[in-house]
Design goal:
The chain contains two helices and ten strands; from the N terminus they run H-E-E-E-E-E-E-E-E-E-E-H. It has about 180 residues and is α+β, with helices and mostly antiparallel strands. It has one domain: Immunoglobulin-like. The chain has a five-stranded antiparallel sheet with strand order 1-2-3-8-5, with no helix packed on it. A hairpin with a 3-residue loop joins strand 9 and strand 10. Helix 1 runs antiparallel to helix 2. It starts with a helix and ends with a helix.
Length: about 180
Amino acid sequence: MKKLIMVAVVAALVTAERSAQANFIIGPTTVAFTPQTGTGNLDITYSVDLTAALYTYTYVLTPVLAGDYLTSFTIGGNASPLFTSTMAITQSGGGTGSVGSNSVGWTWLLSQDVATATVAFTSQYGPGANTFTVNDNGTDWGSPPAIPAPVPEASTTLAGALMILPLGIGAFRALRKERMA
């Protein structure tokens, strides 16, 4: 009976941990950025969803001034690389998207007059804060600050795993005792 209770408790904790992961969502959150060169602000509305161990990152880019049209948007790069090994672009916002060795980016032609765009990609890696660059016809918005995206720190994940460790040890001992008897 003791064995059954221990197994049920461990199973309940594992199920609770997995269901908490399945509901992990960030956003939508809108952040306004001022340009490094030129005039006018840029609004970025971002969200991150987790479904079946795959994160979907979505960004809506909107220059505030009339007549500002998007020409490029890049996240990451040499100074602040991304984990791109599992990335796949899912929305291009009317532009051309590409995944590099340490960044992801989209480009638009000026003749397209793209005043707002929704771009997205999927990845197996969780969110963190990263730098970006957006250009339009005369304005350059860039990091810092990075696009904010909260992420559990490694120490938090480790602490959670260590809290469950005594239950696992207790269950293992109970199983061993029962087999020896």
